[in-house]
Write a structure and sequence with these properties.
The chain is an alpha+beta fold and about 300 residues long. The chain has seven helices and eight strands. α2 packs parallel to α5. The longest helix has 24 residues. It is globular.
Length: about 300
C-alpha cells in the first residue's frame, strides 16, 4: 500500500473507485422514495461515498473556569455585544473558553466532508445527497469523524463548477429543485459555552428551591444555542446561500469541577443543515412541487 500524505483520495479509497469503474456496479444509501425522487429530476445515483478522519483532541484550550468570565464581565458573543458570566467559544475579548476545542470539531467534520466530496469527484458526480455526519469516541481522546452520502450525476452535458452536498433526503431535493431552489452545501455551526455556578445558580438549583427557573442554566443554554446558530448562519453565507434549511439542533451539557467546591457547567450545541440558492427570478416557481406517495 502506498504511503499517503493526507491529500486527495486515500489509497484504499482510490482502489475502491477503480473497482467501481471496472465493475460498473452502482451502490446507494438512498431509500426507495429518495432514489425515485432524484431520478425524476434527472439525477442518477452513481455510488455511495464516504470520508473520514481520526483526530486526537488533546487540548481544549480552556485554562480557567467560568468564574473568571463572570468577574470580568466577559461574554462570548463576538459581534453580539452581549456581556455576562457565560463564556462562549467564539468570544473575541481575550477569553474564548473552549475555542480551540471547537476549532478541532470544525476541522474533523470539514475534513470528513472534503474527503467524501473527493470520492464523489472521482466518480464524476455532480452532488452528494442524504449526507450523514457522525462522530465516534475511540478512547484516549481520539475521535472518528465520518461523512456518508450517495453521489448523484445529472443527465446533461454541462457540469457544475463544484460538487454540491446536502443532508436532505432525495425526495426533498427533488421538491426543492422543482420549486426553483438548489442545494449548494451541507453546513453546520458549533459552539461550546462555560458558566460558573454562582451563588444564585446554586440556590435556585438546590433541592429546597421548589419549582423555579434556574436562570444561570437558562442563560448558558440560550447563549450556546444562539452562538451555534450564528456560526451556522455565517457558514451558510460563506457558501453563497440565499436561504438555509436547519435539519437538526443538538445540545449536550456536562459538569466540571476545576477545584474543590467550585463547579462549572459546560454546554455544547450544534446545528446542521443545507445552504440553498435559487435559480429563477420570477415571483412564482417554475413548476409545481413534486408529490411522492409511498405505497406500503
Amino acid at each position: 500500500m502506498a504511503q499517503w500524505d493526507g491529500q486527495g483520495l486515500p489509497p484504499v479509497a482510490a482502489e475502491r473507485i477503480a473497482r467501481f469503474a471496472r465493475s460498473g456496479l452502482r451502490t446507494s444509501l438512498l431509500t426507495v422514495p429518495g432514489a425515485t425522487g432524484v431520478q425524476t429530476i434527472g439525477l442518477d445515483p452513481v455510488g455511495e461515498v464516504m470520508g473520514c478522519i481520526v483526530e486526537h483532541i488533546g487540548w481544549s484550550g480552556f485554562g480557567g473556569c467560568g468564574y473568571v468570565g463572570g468577574m470580568l464581565g466577559i461574554g462570548g458573543f463576538s459581534g453580539f455585544g452581549l456581556g455576562g458570566p457565560t463564556i462562549t467559544s467564539s468570544g473575541s475579548r481575550g477569553i474564548v473558553g473552549f475555542g480551540p476545542y471547537v476549532d478541532a470539531l470544525f476541522h474533523g467534520y470539514g475534513t470528513a466532508l472534503r474527503r467524501m466530496v473527493d470520492e464523489a469527484s472521482a466518480m464524476d458526480a455532480d452532488g452528494v445527497v442524504g449526507v450523514r455526519l457522525s462522530v465516534s469516541h475511540l478512547g484516549n481522546n481520539n475521535r472518528e469523524f465520518v461523512a456518508l452520502g450517495t453521489a448523484v450525476r445529472a443527465r446533461c452535458q454541462q457540469r457544475p463548477s463544484r460538487v454540491f452536498t446536502t443532508d436532505l433526503a432525495g425526495q426533498d431535493v427533488a421538491k426543492l429543485l422543482r420549486a426553483g431552489w438548489v442545494p449548494c452545501a451541507a453546513v453546520y455551526g458549533i459552539s461550546v459555552a462555560v458558566r460558573h455556578d454562582d451563588w444564585t445558580t446554586q440556590r435556585q438549583a438546590s433541592w429546597g428551591a421548589g419549582n423555579t427557573e434556574v436562570s444561570g442554566y437558562t442563560e448558558l443554554v440560550w447563549h450556546v444555542r444562539a452562538d451555534a446558530r450564528h456560526s451556522f448562519e455565517q457558514r451558510a453565507r460563506a457558501a453563497g446561500a440565499e436561504e438555509a434549511i436547519v435539519s437538526s439542533m443538538g445540545l449536550h451539557i456536562s459538569e466540571i469541577e476545576p477545584s474543590e467546591g467550585h463547579r462549572d457547567h459546560v454546554a455544547e450545541a450544534n446545528v446542521f443543515g443545507t445552504a440553498l440558492v435559487s435559480f429563477h427570478q420570477g415571483s412564482t416557481t417554475p413548476t409545481r412541487s413534486l408529490t411522492i406517495l409511498p405505497l406500503r
